[in-house]
Structure formats: C-alpha cells, structure tokens
Design goal:
The protein is an all-alpha fold and 299 residues long. It is built from eleven helices and no strands. This is Type II secretion system protein GspF domain-containing protein.
Length: 299
C-alpha cells in the first residue's frame, strides 16, 4: 500500500474517532419515540447490562447519543426483536458495538507503535488493514452473541409455552372465562416466561386491551409465532369451552412434538460431530499401517 493510501486510511479513522468523541460529549438528542413514550406514561422497565466500569459507562453514553441518528436508518439495523426478547437496551448495545470497533481500530496501531519503539516495527499499511478488519469483526460480534442468546431464549419460551397452554386449557375446561384463564395461568409459574406473560397481560388489562390482542402484539415484537397461534385460538373460539379445550391441548401437543424433534435433531448432529474426529483418527492409523508396506513395495 502506498504512503498516500495509508495517510487516507488513518485520516479517515482519525476523523471517525474525533466525531464519535464529539458525540460522546455533546448533549444527546432525544428520539421521537422515546419522547412520546415519556409523555404517554412510564416506560417499561428494562434490565440494563450497563455496569459501573468505564467501558460500560462510555458505551452507554455513546449509544444514547448515536442511537437517535441511526435508529431509523435503512442501511444500519439492530436485531430489535432479539433485544426486546432479552430486555436489552438498543442504545446500550449500539454503544457496545461502537466501543468495540474503536478498540479494534487502536489495537494494531498501538502494538506497531510499541514495536517501532524497539526498532522492529512494521510498515503502517499492514496495521491499518488489520485495524480496520478487526474493528469490523468486533462491531459484528455483539450481534452474533445476541442472536445466539435470543435463539436459546425462544426455544426456552416455546418449551414453557406448552405448559402455559395446558394450564389455560384446564382453566377453560373448569368454566373460567377467557381473560381470567390467560391471567391465572400466567400467575402459576415463576420462570421468566410466565413472568413476562403475566406482565404483558397485566398491562393489557390496565389499558383496556383484549388479552389476545396483547399476545398477538408481543408475538410480533419478539418474533414468537407460537404465542401468536395461542392468541388466534383464544380469539376465534371465544366462549366455546369444549372447542377451545381441544384446540389448546392439540396446540400444546404439537409444540411438545416439535420440541422433541428439534432435540433429537440436535442430538443426532452432536453425535455426527463426535464421530468425525474418531473417523479422522481411524484414517490416520490406517495410513500409519500402510506406509511401511508401501515403502517396501516401492523400494
């Protein structure tokens, strides 16, 4: 890489760094959605992952300042459904990604500066390329971790939802109303799934929203199709106790069957992964046995 290209790269990196530092110290511009939420009522509680460390504080402040400018962008999107499922603040996650990218930009230039001080430094073009590549990878790592955790959370939600549907079916068979069945079933369990359902149904009752409409909205926000199916069943069957009981039991059985198939598939995949190293060792052992014989034949 020529000196001109190196200068351009580091000038661009320095400009981005100065811009982000300026945003860190500037007063944050409130997002329209956040302002409307504050005017309409208290926002739902979020389990913030921001700690007391310097990096967490920097990520939180930087995310608050940058997020209003990027939340409506068509070229940059956050996994909002996954973040809502995990109760993560999108602004803080964005700040974590930016801080990780900034650290990635500084790692290799700093190491090269230390090596240069000892007289063994590399040309600055190589650290520039490595720093940009590292920053890009570190910027994407939080998204990968969030998607992994959200996938596990959805699987856990589907597993608990089958039990919840059974409880709703038992309540409906006992002559309890549709709304009361959904609310009482959510109050039985103490896992995060039941607590989340209880919270959403409580908020729906306070606002006068139908519980199945609230469940449908939550299913779209969190990407939980099974919860939407439950809402559709409760909405269509209404007060038909026997009909809704059979439909709910069938839905719960279908969820358990799908979970069992998924677990069997995961077990088979894990077994195949365990067999691959053994097959490689067996092939290596056969090659070790054949090498002396081939040496004698060819010699």
């Amino acid at each position: 890489m020529s000196i001109q290209m190196t200068v351009i790269l580091y000038t661009s990196v320095g400009t981005i760094g100065i811009y982000l530092v300026a945003l860190y110290f500037m007063r944050a511009q409130p997002a329209l959605s956040d302002a409307m939420s504050r005017l309409s009522g208290p926002a739902p509680e979020r389990t913030s992952t921001a700690g007391t460390s310097l990096i967490d504080g920097m990520a939180n402040k930087l995310g608050i300042r940058v997020h209003p400018y990027l939340q409506d962008s068509k070229f940059f999107t956050l996994p909002n459904a996954d973040l809502a499922l995990l109760h993560r603040d999108p602004a803080h996650v964005l700040g974590e990604k930016l801080v990780a990218a900034l650290l990635g930009l500084l790692i290799f230039p700093f190491l090269n500066l230390v090596l240069t001080a000892f007289g063994v430094g590399l040309g600055w073009s190589i650290p520039a390329i490595l720093s940009i590549a590292t920053a890009f990878l570190l910027f994407l790592i939080p998204d990968i971790e969030i998607r992994r955790r959200a996938t596990a959370a959805r699987a856990e939600f589907a597993q608990a939802l089958s039990s919840y549907i059974d409880l709703v079916a038992l309540c409906r068979r006992g002559g309890i109303g549709t709304t009361q069945s959904l609310e009482r079933a959510a109050q039985v369990g103490d896992s995060w799934v039941f607590l989340r359902l209880d919270e959403e149904l409580y908020e729906a009752g306070r606002s006068g929203e139908a519980p199945w409409n609230a469940l449908t909205r939550v299913s779209h926000e969190l990407g939980l199709t099974e919860l939407g199916d439950l809402a559709d069943i409760m909405n269509m069957t209404g007060d038909k106790g026997a009909s809704v009981y059979a439909s709910l039991r069938a839905k719960a059985a279908g969820l358990r069957s799908a979970q069992a198939s998924a677990e069997q598939g995961a077990a088979a995949e894990a077994t195949e992964k365990l067999a691959m190293p053994l097959a490689g060792l067996a092939g290596l052992f056969i090659m070790l046995l054949l090498i002396p014989a081939l040496t004698i034949i060819t010699g």
